[in-house]
């Protein structure tokens, strides 16, 4: 009977697709179970489990197919950028602690934009010089520029897993926020490198690039905010929940995704767009939907993001044994290792070259308690060394399509970049968590940074009192009178935040809804704390 | 600046894919808004809105491209069967009223298996005779058999939208349950037709087919139940909720999907498998997860299913203007209309030929109150006339790959089948709801069937008393003493249900969890009613 059945085998479906999907879904299930079991282990996490599981299954496939191919699914940039990345970045925006994020906005922008550019320049220069020394001559200047952009793209997905938003709030928002801006910057740089005419570089090129970047940054952000506000306004006005919870959830999900796709269509940075769309949605839209939609969106978005993350790591792991590339590469193990080491050294130096200087500059402008200590600088440097799927996607894009150059150097570059990604993810991904605990948490109490928060909150309360008199709060009676200007100089971000809150309450919330502007449902997962985002507290 | 930007246009992503995804997501958003606005209109619904919107955008694309192609996304069976169908069928199983479903199980099996076979035979025969009369001679006997299988596949997606589980519970479970079994039957028939050697048909062939079907039916069902139980046991044992709600939701989603993919891989019926997996998951697994996972899964699965449904209708609508097929078809409008009418007439007759006889047979074996009145028979006949995406997918499979026959007849068959699908979905989809209200609800109170339920529940309570004595319930003191055998003869389904409940409580629930075997969380969306599934009541 089974014979007869398989003879009338799936006439309808494409068998390789079915096999690939089945393998991936099964691996995802395995990763989730493993991730659950190693939850309390501080060395392991889901990403590494997924990566190793992907590698292992790649090896098994390789054995089964007798060394022909390890790939069940060929790495596809569309799959990654269109389907896997958006849910991850959207969820990051949706669940980020907004107040903390905007408080560190200047830090994030400096690291994300100037840091990436410095790293890009250094890695390009280093690659150019080093490859000549090693004896690889077929790489053009353009290839080196591309390598600079490729290796400047940090992996924010793994960072999310190794840093804790609760334990190290400043580091989390700085490193993760940098990662989001870095994504945009490195993709802009990569696209610019692709389109640039090397023979015709002048002073204007750099200016043009900067202009492009600023255009991209602002239009992407505005698009994301606009779609977020549209969703808030639409859901508040039409009141979908009257008929169906499902429509609310569906429209939130689809509009967020639409913002990403429209941004990509307009050649903007979809990552920036969907990130800001997520922030706006959590601030307004989320409060306008029914209670069950709130619970559903919070967990469903997190789940989708979680599945996409795990999928990416399995994918990267399985794709690392891309045997055709390894064969084509034709390089000895020695050369591969030397090149990989050289690339990784460039990554280390490139990152150090901006983290420490920028931190110093920031420290000069800041008060004692808020400055970035040398230990934190080290962690910022360290946590941003992980390279991930964006790097691999860009590497494939650069080194697999070109037909003019020698194929074996291209293949070698891809395999070496894969080695860098695997090494950084496994080693840095597993060491970072214990390292942070050893370096930071034992010595400096993480609450100190929180206390700073409360101090500035206190200042804010002072600021909001029209007469500026002392608060009738026993513990703070000795608080000195401070002028508004003085406060602004001392706590510029807090003042901006205060002004924003006033503007928000007066103009935005009445139109777009948000907490306090929709009927309160008892038992909802809202916190009563003063955080702007209550998504985080009720986790 | 924009010029410069578009010149460094998306170096990374495939532009057509981005456009296609953007268009579809935008159309989905529009459909949701329209569906919300026409919610109270009993003639319109989301499916029809999606279909018409798809048609309209197809026309726009056709105009923009100056008549070259209306397709933003070419109809792809993989997309449909691998990504869109599973969430719909899983959710149907997850949210179905289980007691009602199993009560009507014999009806569902009779309609779904024998009905589909009768319809298949009649349509095949009719197509063979009619096409000869019309003058289309290039269709082989094999093509006619395929047409029989293709047009016997009812569309359960639209049925879900036009029938209400609350208002007409019997009709909903009968027609929808039939649809699920029908899907399996017609795909088995279609695959069988593909692999059969026409020149070598004997009496054994039919027997073989039946054997195949039974094998498929049981293995698929068992696989679904096994995966469902595995998820319940795994979640109960490992207690994922301890660390993360997201893992619970993810593992439920992935395991359900895995059951579908494994079934497809083994050439079983994925639809049957995932349907039963959904039923088992709602009975056991759903009760083993945390409170927020319960809310999330309930709404997230419904949302995914809802998005997939809407997507399919947009897809079918947009694909209807497949201009290359229309051009290739080369048939006059007259011929197309005649063939479409002939096909549709066959659908009408084919369905009538099994609904009425089977209903009569069923009525002979049933009590007066439970029999299928002529009005209900009419609705069952009517609601099952809708043809949908499965039909189109099978038609493309049959008539677009073959190279030996004349291409224009193949194309004509595809266009005619598309006409049948569009016509049946728009007309029957919009008329069915008002029709049911006119025919059924005005005359017969839908609650009569519910009262029957309570009567048999009463009987059950009698049955469960060891001494068989009367219940000390004031309203039922006059209930006559009935022997167990008498009860079994009068209410065989209820008795089976009772025995199942006993077995469930004694052996299954202690192992696999389920309601009452996990700590009760106050404020959970559980009902206190006696329904087996509380998913439905808390809707």
Total number of helices of chain A: 21
The separation of the N and C termini of chain A measures: 52 Å
CATH architecture tag of chain A: Up-down Bundle
Radius of gyration of chain A: 25 Å
Tally the structural domains of chain A: 1
Largest interface: A-B, 79 and 79 residues
Topology of helices and strands:
2 copies of one chain form a homodimer.
Chain A: H1 2-7, H2 15-37, H3 46-64, H4 77-95, H5 98-103, H6 105-134, H7 141-152, H8 156-162, H9 169-195, H10 203-238, H11 245-265, H12 270-288, H13 291-319, H14 323-329, H15 333-365, H16 374-383, H17 389-399, H18 407-441, H19 447-464, H20 484-490, H21 492-512
What does this structure look like?
Two copies of one chain form a homodimer. Chain A is an all-alpha fold and 539 residues long. Chain A has a single domain (1-442), classed as Na+/H+ antiporter like fold, CATH 1.20.1530.20. Chain A has 21 helices and no strands. Chain A has helices at 2-7, 15-37, 46-64, 77-95, 98-103, 105-134, 141-152, 156-162, 169-195, 203-238, 245-265, 270-288, 291-319, 323-329, 333-365, 374-383, 389-399, 407-441, 447-464, 484-490, 492-512. In chain A, helix 4 (77-95) crosses helix 12 (270-288). Chain A starts with a helix and ends in a 27-residue tail after the last helix. Chains A and B meet through helix 1, helix 2, helix 4, helix 9 and helix 10 of A and helix 1, helix 2, helix 4, helix 9 and helix 10 of B. Chains A, B: This is Cation/H+ exchanger transmembrane domain-containing protein. Chains A, B: It is found in: Membrane.
């Amino acid at each position: 009977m089974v014979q007869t059945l398989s003879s009338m085998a799936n006439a309808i479906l494409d068998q390789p697709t079915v096999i690939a999907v089945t393998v991936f879904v099964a691996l995802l299930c395995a990763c989730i179970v493993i991730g659950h079991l190693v939850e309390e282990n501080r060395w392991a996490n889901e990403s590494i489990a997924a990566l190793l599981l992907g590698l292992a299954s790649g090896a098994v496939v390789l054995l089964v197919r007798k060394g022909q191919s390890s790939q069940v699914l060929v790495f596809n940039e569309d799959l990654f950028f269109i389907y896997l990345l958006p849910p991850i970045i959207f969820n990051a925006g949706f669940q980020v602690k907004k107040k903390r994020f905007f408080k560190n906005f200047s830090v994030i922008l400096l690291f994300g934009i100037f840091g990436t550019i410095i790293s890009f320049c250094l890695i390009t220069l280093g690659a150019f010089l080093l490859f000549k020394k090693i004896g690889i001559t077929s790489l053009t200047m353009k290839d080196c520029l591309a390598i600079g952009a490729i290796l400047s793209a940090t992996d924010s997905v793994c960072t999310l897993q190794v840093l804790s938003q609760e334990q190290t709030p400043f580091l989390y928002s700085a490193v993760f926020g940098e990662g989001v801006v870095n994504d945009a910057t490195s993709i802009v740089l990569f696209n610019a490198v692709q389109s640039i005419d090397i023979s015709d570089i002048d002073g204007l090129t750099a200016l043009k690039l900067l202009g492009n970047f600023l255009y991209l940054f602002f239009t992407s952000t505005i698009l994301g905010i606009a779609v977020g506000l549209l969703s808030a306004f639409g859901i508040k006005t039409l009141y979908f929940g009257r008929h169906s919870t499902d429509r609310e959830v569906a429209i939130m999900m689809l509009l967020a995704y639409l913002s990403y796709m429209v941004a990509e269509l307009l050649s903007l940075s979809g990552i920036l767009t969907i990130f800001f769309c997520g922030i706006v949605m959590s601030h307004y839209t989320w409060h306008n939907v029914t209670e069950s939609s709130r619970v559903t969106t919070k967990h469903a978005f997190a789940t989708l993001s979680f599945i996409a993350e795990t999928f990416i790591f399995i994918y990267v792991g399985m794709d690392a044994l891309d045997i055709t590339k390894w064969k084509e590469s034709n390089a000895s193990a020695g050369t591969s290792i030397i090149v990989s080491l050289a690339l990784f050294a460039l990554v280390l130096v490139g990152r150090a070259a901006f983290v420490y200087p920028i931190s110093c500059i920031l420290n000069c402008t800041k008060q004692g308690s808020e400055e970035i200590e040398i230990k934190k600088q080290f962690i910022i440097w360290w946590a941003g060394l992980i390279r991930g799927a964006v790097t691999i996607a860009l590497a494939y894009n650069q080194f697999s399509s070109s037909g003019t150059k020698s194929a074996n150097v291209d293949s070698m570059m891809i395999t070496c970049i894969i080695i860098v990604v695997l090494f950084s993810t496994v080693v840095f991904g597993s060491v970072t968590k214990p390292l942070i605990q050893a370096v930071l948490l034992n010595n400096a109490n993480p609450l100190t940074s929180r206390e700073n928060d409360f101090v500035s909150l206190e200042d804010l309360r002072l600021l909001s009192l029209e007469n500026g008199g002392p608060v009738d709060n026993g513990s703070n009676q000795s608080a000195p009178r401070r002028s508004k200007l003085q406060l602004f100089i001392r706590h510029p971000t807090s003042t901006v935040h205060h002004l924003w809150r006033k503007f928000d309450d007066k103009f935005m919330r009445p139109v777009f809804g948000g907490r306090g502007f929709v009927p309160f449902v008892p038992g909802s997962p809202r916190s009563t704390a003063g955080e702007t985002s209550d998504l985080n507290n009720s986790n």
